[in-house]
Amino acid sequence: MFRIALAQINSTVGDIRNNTRKIISYIKKARNRMADIVIFPELAITGYPPEDLLYVPEFIKYNLSALDEIRKSSQRISVIVGFVGVDKSESLYNSAAIISNQKVVGIYNKTHLSNYGVFDEKRYFRRGREQSTFRLLNTSIGVNICEDIWVDNGPIEKQVKQGKARIIINISASPFHIGKYQKRCEILSRRARNNKVYIAYVNLVGGQDELVFDGRSMAFDPSGQIIARAKSFNEELFIVDIPLKKKDFTYVLFATWKSPEVIQETYEALKLGLSDYVRKNGFRKVIIGLSGGIDSALTSLIAVDALGRNNVSGLYLPSQFSSSLSNRCTATLTRNLGIKLITIPINHIYQKYLMCLKLSRKTITLTNENLQSRIRGNILMALSNKTGALVLTTGNKSELSTGYTTLYGDMAGGFALLKDVPKTLVYKLVSYGNYLFSNKINKFPIPEEIIKRAPSAELKPNQKDSDTLPEYEILDPILQAYIEENKNLKQIVKQTGIAEEVVSKVMRMVDRSEYKRRQFPPGVKITPCAFGKDRRFPITNKFFLSH
Question: What is the CATH number of domain 2-259?
Fold first, then answer.
């Protein structure tokens, strides 16, 4: 039996000292569990992605010193860990160190550098050229990094055919988006089956700015069957015993976890992304602008789940257009969640603005509407300054896509939890969150009145989102086809069956709102194409597919 420990850890970018301490602690845990080898994620020492920290010479130096410290801690065990490698010409590599009993026995440099979507590795790293194998405990092992195993006829084939590898170890930092886990399973299963080899795959876990790494490290046998799987969105050290005899697929499984449904895994990604962003950036508390609507309600629920109710405050800022329903919904929500509610009416401030700007009190123009939103943004940020709490922006992807949001108003804040969450998905997440909390407090924290009410910004009498936007059940399929699938006008009309004038209007709204999206706070990426990290269109742009 060959005992492999997969150390699914949560590294913090730039915190090399504490990352190293964590790695060494996991080495000790693996040794205590009689593991032959312990493997860590891609760039575990530096955190992923380090971005332009890689241009800082001291950063590279500390990273190499940390590797040496890890080497010294590898008595009676082998370790594979991701770090930043450097050659004699001072070129940088995304590397894996293979360490055995206090000796570095080899270095593997990533061959296929990820350079699409959220990845920008060719900006920093040179690609590796060698796909060698390493012999540990009389077993030939191939080591590769993340993207290397996704590529057909890549390193794994050479490591198996030329190096006679019987076990492939892939260290990864693969961020979450909906459907990503299934793709990983498909790829890894195919590679194991086609090459008749065991695969041990370890993935990073934790939040980093807009990215969330979901973990779910796993192992496959030579028939392509999954034989071990770690938790999702949690740190874990789990052990896989791999038999070395051919056609003997017996294994010892220490942790098996059912693949979560899409809604559950999305909820957990948002929760982890928020908690890590707050913790890793030195905050303790958050403040949320409450409206009595479903977006701020979901943001509050996840914040309480991630941070604890004592670290979450709600700020309600009613105007003359705020309804009694909004007042009631806000009070019920905060009472159910057990969070502090601060109420500051803004009508007197709004009236002062109208007077100063010589605006009509009777005719409600867009300027009047946006003034209310910007007053709220000012107060939120002032309380953030006063208390040190991070403001959570509550806007969703559907609103951001179409520009249905106010610069320096409801866009004000430090972190936008729902930035990549379409409105129709918000409702599903609320249902899941309500179910989750009902087991703890014996009732649904988000009341039915919030869920069933028509979405409204309440910036003028009887206002509804549908006055400006199509119903969200119509809007979201258009946005998915245009933003995530890059479909043109005719293709979207054919795919969705929605009228051409509606599709064209939505596409124009998306095209004209890039300047707003550039100024939106960071938020958790949960779809294959998130604004900021994935979709980066020029602001000044005359090429519109809606024409």
Answer: 3.60.110.10
